[in-house]
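hey all, quick one before standup. I had two proteins in the batch that finished overnight and I want to keep them in one place so we stop losing track of which output belongs to which input. First protein below, input sequence then structure tokens straight from the run.
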Amino acid sequence: MEVFYGTAREITAWMQLVRLLRAEFPGLETEAALEEHRQTVLRFMEKGHAIGVREGDALAGVMLISTRLNMLCCLGVHPDFRRKGAASLLMAEALKRLDNQREITVTTYRREDPKGPAARGLYEKFGFVPCELVEEMGYPNQVFTKFPAGSEAEGRWRAIGRMTEAIGEILEDCSIYLYGSCVLGDFRRGWSDIDILVLTGKPMSQTQAEHLVNLRQTLLAAEPENPYYRSFEGGMLTREAFVKNAADRVVYWGTSGQRITDRYAFDGFCRGELLEKGKLLLGPEIRGGMALPTREELKRDVTRYYELIRQYAQQTGRSFYSYGWLLDIARGIYTLRTGLVAAKTAAGDWALAQGLCPVPEELVAALEVRQNPEKYRDDPATFDRAETLGPAVQQFADVLQKELQK
């Protein structure tokens, strides 16, 4: 078999193969859809982004790629050439063309889909990692991502996948969402949490809750060198109790520990992240009907953060989170001015650019530590400085107070 780049000369044979495989590709059910796809293939051919494999005169497989989006767009192999290396030849050629210093993505079938095993196995063979669940053309799919060599995100997503699988084995009827810094592009190992929300259709049993409450420790015991399991935080409860902020049997994971409790609620910041940026990891999509936070709700949350800063950050301790007070203030001001929710790093950069912080050198230091926590985790001077941040935090809180009074 040989690899070639398709041109308009091959369009007839290409579309004959697409017709043969159309049942495997949602969105190609009608003649109009097939004609639209034909025009798409011709555009890819013009750009040199249509890769084929043939054996003699027979077209064995086809693939479309996008170098701009750094993604695999479409892959199909003739039934007569499956398990004979055609798909691997296409994958190898595509990965030569795409930028391996960036994330490469592809969308394929979900694990429970009968069509999925071969395609998922192929992508995993080439180093792709299963990530969030999506829908395309009204069909349930999953994004697979190939991360750059040595990428922190690859290990994190593998841990997210293992945690998702473990929760799903305990709770058969649930939807799991990822939100927070992971979906805002602001995760920093050594500082950030991996925030998840697990919503069930019916209350979990006491036995299920007992299995879940210490699941972080269970997975960590099996993989003691994994740096991510202790970073997971969040709540597990029924969707109804979550939406209504009602009592329920709840499993809570936090920074200071875990417990079975009876209530779990989001603030407006978390709800905004969940609804606008949150990624579905498992189960059906059940966010429909949930309301985004209003500006008044967000202002109430900012006021609550402000009161905590006045109460607890007059003096600061030897912790990265002492720097975090400055970033919380920046995010509060950003939200008050824009009505939007931003990642803490982005809000800190914005506050610096706007000249809002009266002690900019401390905000610069906070951003540096936030961006590189593992670089500074053993640096005594960083923690010496953290202990002195109380006055700077309060000066910046004065700016937040004025924003709240407007």
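OK second protein, same deal, sequence then tokens:
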Amino acid sequence: MLKLGYKASAEQFGPGDLLEFSVLAEALGFDSVFVSDHFQPWKHTGGHAPYSFAWLGALGARTRRIEIGTSVVTPTFRYHPAIVAQAAGTLGALFPGRFVLGVGTGESLNEVPALGIEWPPFKERFGRLREAILLIKKLSNEERVSFEGSYYRTQRATIYDRPKKPVPIWIAASGPRAAVLAGEVGDGFICTSGKGTALYRDSLLPKLEEGLARASRNASQIERMIEVKVSFDSEESRAREDTRHWAALALTPEEKTGVEDPVEMEALAAALPLERAASRWIVSADPEAQVEAIRPYVELGFRHLVFHAPGPDQPRFLRLYAERVLPLLRAEFG
């Protein structure tokens, strides 16, 4: 079954506006809404960073059908994994079968300013994520959990409010080690579009399969979700111009290394030409062109597509996409 979702850009919009956009997405037939969890946005001017767990409580109360979740939260620095387990338990109890906990290794942009820490190398960040997931799972399934790990510990801890069926944990991966981890212990796998087909075909998805094999799990046991970056409008020039707000996504990892200040990140992004700012996005005014550009991701096995649009007029995008593109995707891919 194909699922078509909406990415709520918490770095771009305040909580009230974002809530109304997401309620509209459900009314227009989208299947899910996933929200980012940032402490700092990608740009200082006009930036936002509402608290995802509080916002998801409001979204769940205002909607009835859609799947909701984080894409993604970092359960390792700003949040102790026990607190993440508590938040997930509450949301899972309030909205049974609808909440998904998406997790990842995080970004210095969000963790360093909030905590004043030195951003550790990937080895530690990955070790923390693996251990945090283990602890969250224990707290979601057991009582009186005393845990002694390399990074976290609990003493006779219980999550008292939680759903009968534990909240699914989906793991974000942009590299091979996290993809293996998703296959080993995740209920779902999350990645983002626009990085070249070879990354998904030759690295991430084979490593996901490797993780599944290591854990003797069936491929059907894990959901494959991809955030697809689309800029669609009836005017292609407008669709292209809309990508300027998210120019930071076109910066290379090397260009962003050590940048934790939204003011500095904004300056780096502003220096990029429009052509490069648009490079991560599927930009068109043609619904058929959108479908054809999305086709490779579906053929790679992604059955949950969450659309991230960069423009300031999100209701316009949602209505246009729901009317002109979603029906074509459902007809073509089921």
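Flagging for whoever picks this up: DSSP finds 14 helices and eleven strands in the chain. Residues 189 and 224 are 5 Å apart (CA to CA).
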